[in-house]
Amino acid sequence: MASRQRLTVVVITKNEERQIARCLESARWADELVIIDDESVDRTAEIARGYGARVIAHRSDGNFDRQRNLGIGAATAEWVLQMDADEVIPAALHQEIERVLASGAGSAESPVAYRIRRRNCFLGRFMRYGGWSTEGVKLFRRDRARYVGRSVHETLQVDGATGALTAEIEHYPFTSLEQVVGRTNHYTTVEARLLAEEQPRLPCRAIAYQMTWRPVKLFWKSYIRKAGWRDGMHGLVFALWGAWSHMLRWAKYWELTRLVDRR
Q: How does 120-159 read in b/e, with b if 16+ C-beta sit within 10 Å?
């Protein structure tokens, strides 16, 4: 059997002092920890260094693809696990990743990357319904994958076969409604700007649809069709948040593409 290959955990951060310790504590078994920090002004970098992580400060300007590629470039291990500061590796996932590392490169048909599902926690509750079931390629061989594009929703291109792990990674994106509002405001601004650069002159009718009927449909899909109501008030707030964030993104797009010209 091939000897165990090494793993670098890469985490992108910005002002994550409240949760970076929990993330790195769950990943401290990795051979290397690399932090790509978006010029945090809190104790994020200090806490990360306390876990032995190598911290690289780099401004993102909303380009998470570039941040993650910087992490890949800084990694020295054969395998990379990309994480966010609000993610935690439970014991079951740790064990499954260890099995991948122990299998080495395997045959020519062996996966060079693996999809991992997220178990999402919303305001203290792990959501079971509402359509919030996400999966992404997070574990991959360092020399066989790169992020492409310019986005807050990263796109990973893999050169080779992709498999899937059965264990989930835990995701704790929001602990309060104040945090929900703050992050949504930030992300919708970035998304609206990117959308305006790609499609600067969409007709008013299309924008109005995205600000009115589309949010209604998103709420219906989450709360009714995906049974979000079964998660109680958490499901209701989650469905309303999804509709509101979509409307806000397009309202900001309208502001960028219409009001700026009139100033």
A: bbbbeeebebbbbeeeebbbbbbebbbbeeebbebebebe
Which regions of the chain carry the CATH code 3.90.550.10? 7-173
CA distances from 101 to 52, 95, 122, 246 (A): 21, 10, 32, 40
CA separation for the pair 76, 82 (Å, rounded): 14
User: Per-residue pLDDT for 145 more than 50?
Assistant: yes
What share of the chain has pLDDT > 90, as a percent?
Answer: 79
Q: What is the DSSP string of 196-246?
A: HHH-TT--HHHHHHHHTHHHHHHHHIIIIIT-GGGGHHHHHHHHHHHHHHH
- The whole-angstrom separation of Cα 159 and Cα 48 is 31
Condensed to tens digits (0 to 9), the pLDDT of residues 108-141 reads 678 999 999 999 999 999 999 998 878 899 999 9
Give the pLDDT band of residue 263 (cuts 50, 70, 90): very low
In eight-state DSSP terms, residue 170 is E
State how far the alpha carbon of 132 is from the alpha carbons of 14, 113, 125, in Å: 24, 23, 12
Mean pLDDT in the chain?
Answer: 91
Length of the chain: 263
Assigned architecture for domain 7-173 = Alpha-Beta Complex (3.90)
Q: What is the pLDDT of residues 66-90, one digit of tens each?
A: 899 999 999 999 999 999 999 999 9
Q: Is residue 4 classed exposed, middle or buried when 0-12, 13-18 and 19+ CB atoms within 10 A define those classes?
A: middle
